[in-house]
Amino acid sequence: QTEAPLCIKPYLDNMSRAGLMTLMVGGFATIAGSVLAGYVNFLVPSGDEVQRAMWIRHLLTASVMSAPAAFVMARVLVPETSGEVDTGAVNMVQSKPAANLLDAAATGATDGLHLSLNVAAMLIAFVALLALVNWPIQSFGDWEPVSNALAIVGIESLDLQTILGRLFSPLAWCMGVSWADADFVGRLMGEKIIVTEFLAYVTLADAVNDPSGSPISERSAAIAAFALCGFANFGSVGIQIGGLSAIAPSRRPQFVSLAFRAMIGGAFASWMTASIAGVFL
Question: What does the pLDDT look like over 222-238, one tens digit per residue?
Answer without folding.
Answer: 999 999 998 898 888 88
